[in-house]
Design brief:
Elements: E1 2-3, H1 19-22, E2 33-34, H2 38-53, H3 65-70, H4 105-118, H5 123-150, E3 153-154, E4 160-161, H6 165-176, H7 182-186, H8 191-209, H9 222-238, H10 245-257, H11 262-271, H12 286-308, H13 328-347, H14 372-391, H15 395-409, H16 435-452, H17 456-480, H18 484-492, H19 499-511, H20 515-528, H21 533-545, H22 549-562, H23 567-579, H24 583-596, H25 601-613, H26 617-630, H27 635-647, H28 651-664, H29 669-681, H30 685-698, H31 703-716, H32 719-732, H33 739-757
Antiparallel strand pairs: 1-2, 3-4
Length: about 750
């Protein structure tokens, strides 16, 4: 039911308010909205936030999840826990020049716990934790918004009072159902933003607890201020934005606890007014608390800088084109345009994309570009709000607008390019915390409209409509994040100029075996970004497999020309040159790849194949041995060693290598097959038979397995079993080389035996 009454559970609240509360305007007074007891309000918020993202629970690992989770060795039990504190979010050493410097060890620790409890990389557990985190954060928002919108007041018994139950519920619902949060919740990598937000809010609520025994601002708890700083540090260990809560706590202290008039304070500072001493700043301990917050924040940042070791990460122009512009004007105007787009995503979160880089947003290079209107509109609105926040005679209005702007802007600062270059143009995940400020401003605007509106219920129904649309949008967007195919294709209509979008669609198609369609998208990616070396490499790979070697060589040669240290492209170029029988060039390409990537087992494997083709058997064996040292589970390298030693008559050595390989990869049926062949030639029939049968059990449809087992039985004199497996082999592959001839020989032998027996 929509009503305008005060909370029925607390009819005598005014009797227990402090004198300060009695003079404070009530934001809920003119708002037509649901009034629920605190417990039920939180239950409603939790349920609706769960409803928005529930369909993402059984989604796959998508996009960045592969690098941050599946390929991240820090999640595995064999990696010491201590390594998490020296590695970045992606598992690379922070001291490395290639590290992104994203230091989030606590987030990685939660991934590791997920992995250990699940017993492997099963995405359901990861997704469920993300959904639970968002629901928890949304519930905490009810308390946070009640403080930000209604003020911090306590009863005589020290219990915090909710002076804005209706508007705090509305703001929490707006936050819970905002579609821009989908990336954080449905994308597992968004765990960093969720954990950061959780401790960010706990730090704020902890800071508020410092004033529970506060009487007219004289007393506060140093313990809770310190706890707030510690929780801020934990938030930063989940994601870098977390440190900004310390600045917001200082703003909250000044505006809500000390009720400072910022404009009046600035004027007094400029005039060096002696009455500043009587402003209550020193008396209420504000400077002491701010000093505590600042010193805590500075210590945290210093420790993080020491751990990070080297300078900032080295991003490329495609990651953030504006930051590489030579002109300061172009950089400034594009940064401001990005801010306006982030603001638009908060206002109208309909066009969402997993990646906004690589030409998705062309640079503004002159004032004649019509997009200048967007950033002009942004600053018009911001300046208007700032003026109201500073100059309004209504202290309640000043407080809410300043807090709204503070929560909107301050958490966004690390992503603003103002202090350091960031590795993205727009990232929906970084708006998770700033959306708190948006919800404050939206709710306050709704309360002002309600105050002026004659038909308040129509306005309330309109807001309900917005909430419902957002719930549906969240559900739709969550379903798109369930698989890479849906996610990547959803971006084609939003960012058709983004080369990375076309690249990812092509890669997804190639992984599914649809090479013809993949070629189309890879070509479009290269057309949109002629320097996109990864698209060239993947396209060259497909063309190589389709035996279109000339174009493949051209693409791969161009890729290594653009990026000379691109090891994968050098290796693939070597494979193409080997196929073209230009062996010297191929060998040079392989060694260049190894020079740029010292630990490159696949390249050693391909180098071994080249040496085998050239009958350089010792070099081939050495190359394959290097591959297995770098990657002990490299089945192809082990197999090739066994086969080469077998073919050259080194049966004892082949047997030793085969046994070594099976100890490392005991369930690899191809290794069982190769070793079984060697043992058969060494007349170790019983052991050979056992391995053949084990290989067939693992892969019963391999014609060669049955065929070679038949040969073993043929040699062994077990002719009936030989006949049986020859027939199975021919049934699976009628054109199997040599099998038909061997089968015919066996049949003739059986016929001769029957004649003799007859």
């Amino acid at each position: 039911q929509i009503c305008n009454q005060h909370n029925a559970e607390t009819p005598n609240l005014e009797q227990v308010f402090h004198r300060m509360a009695q003079t404070e305007p009530n934001l809920d007074h003119d708002v037509s909205w649901f009034l629920l007891p605190s417990y039920w309000a939180k239950m409603v918020v939790a349920f609706i936030s769960f409803l928005c993202f529930a369909n993402s629970y059984d989604g796959d690992f998508v996009f960045d999840d592969s690098e941050a989770i599946i390929n991240n060795k820090d999640l595995r039990a064999e990696t010491p826990l201590g390594d998490l504190w020296h590695h970045d979010f992606w598992g690379s050493k922070l001291s490395s020049n290639t590290s992104h410097k994203s230091y989030r060890p606590l987030t990685v620790l939660t991934f590791r716990i997920n992995y250990l409890f699940a017993g492997g990389f099963y995405p359901v557990g990861f997704h469920v934790i993300n959904i639970i985190l968002h629901c928890t954060i949304s519930v905490l928002m009810v308390d946070v918004f009640s403080i930000l919108l209604g003020g911090l007041q306590f009863s005589n018994k020290g219990r915090r009072l909710n002076l804005a139950p209706k508007t705090s519920l509305l703001a929490a619902l707006l936050f819970a159902v905002h579609p821009v949060h989908t990336e954080c919740v449905a994308g597992i990598v968004g765990r960093a933003d969720l954990l950061c937000a959780l401790f960010f809010l706990l730090s704020f609520l902890g800071y508020c607890k410092a004033f529970r025994e506060n009487k007219e601002g004289h007393n506060f708890s140093i313990f809770w201020v310190v706890v707030s700083v510690i929780l801020g540090a934990i938030a930063m260990l989940c994601k870098e934005q977390g440190i900004t809560i310390l600045g917001l706590n200082a703003v909250f202290d000044a505006l809500v606890i000390n009720k400072l008039n910022v404009l009046e304070l600035i004027q007094k500072l400029l005039r060096k007014d002696k009455s500043l001493e009587n402003a209550g700043v020193l008396r209420k301990g504000l400077l002491f608390r701010i000093t505590l917050l600042m010193s805590g924040g500075a210590s945290i940042l210093y420790i993080r800088w020491r751990i990070m070791g080297t300078g900032p990460p080295a991003f490329t122009e495609v990651d953030n084109p504006a930051s590489f512009a030579d002109s300061l004007f172009v950089r400034a105007i594009n940064y401001n345009y990005y801010y306006s787009l982030n603001a638009w995503l908060l206002l109208c979160p309909w066009w969402l994309c997993f990646d906004w880089s690589m030409g998705c947003i062309p640079l503004i290079k002159s004032v004649s570009d019509w997009r200048i209107i967007a950033l002009a509109a942004l600053w018009f609105c911001l300046i208007g709000l700032i003026c109201q926040a500073l100059c309004s005679e209504d202290s309640h209005k000043r407080r809410i607008l300043t807090l709204g702007l503070g929560f909107l802007i301050i958490p966004f600062l690390p992503a603003s390019n103002l202090f350091f270059r960031v590795g993205f143009v727009i990232a929906e995940r970084v708006i998770y915390l700033p959306s708190i400020g948006y919800c404050i401003l939206f709710t306050y605007g709704f309360s002002l409209l309600s105050k002026q509106a004659k038909k308040k219920k129509i306005l309330a129904v309109a807001v309900l409509g917005i909430l419902l649309i957002n719930v549906l949008r969240c559900a739709l967007r969550s379903s798109q994040w369930r698989s890479e195919e849906q996610l990547f294709r959803s971006a084609l209509s939003v960012c058709p100029l983004n080369a990375k979008v076309h690249y990812n669609v092509g890669k997804n198609l190639a992984d599914k075996g649809n090479q013809s369609a993949a070629i189309k998208y890879y070509r479009e990616a290269v057309r949109l970004n002629p320097k996109y070396v990864h698209a060239m490499n993947n396209l060259g790979n497909i063309l190589k497999e389709r035996n279109e070697l000339q174009e493949a060589e051209e693409l791969l040669s161009l890729a290594v020309q653009i990026q000379p240290d691109f090891a994968a492209a050098w290796m693939n170029l070597g494979i193409v040159q080997n196929s073209l029988r230009r062996f010297e060039e191929a060998e040079q390409s392989y060694w260049t790849a190894i020079k740029h990537r010292k630990k490159y087992p696949d390249c050693y494997y391909n180098l071994g194949r080249l040496y085998a083709d050239l009958n350089r058997h010792i070099d081939a064996l050495n190359a394959w041995r290097n591959a297995t040292v770098l990657k002990p589970e490299h089945s192809l390298a082990w197999n090739n060693m066994i086969i080469l030693l077998d073919n050259t008559g080194n049966l004892a050595q082949a047997e030793a290598v085969g046994r070594e390989a099976l100890e490392l990869i005991p369930n690899d049926h191809s290794l069982m097959f190769s070793l079984a062949n060697v043992l058969g030639k060494s007349q170790k029939y019983k052991e050979s038979e056992a391995l053949f049968l084990k290989a067939i059990k693992a892969n019963p449809n391999a014609a060669s397995y049955h065929g070679n087992l038949a040969v073993l039985y043929h040699r062994w004199g077990n002719l009936d079993l030989a006949k049986k497996h020859y027939e199975v082999s021919l049934k699976l592959d009628p054109m199997a080389p040599g099998t038909k001839e061997n089968y015919n020989l066996l049949r003739r032998k059986l016929e001769q035996l029957q004649k003799k027996g007859g």
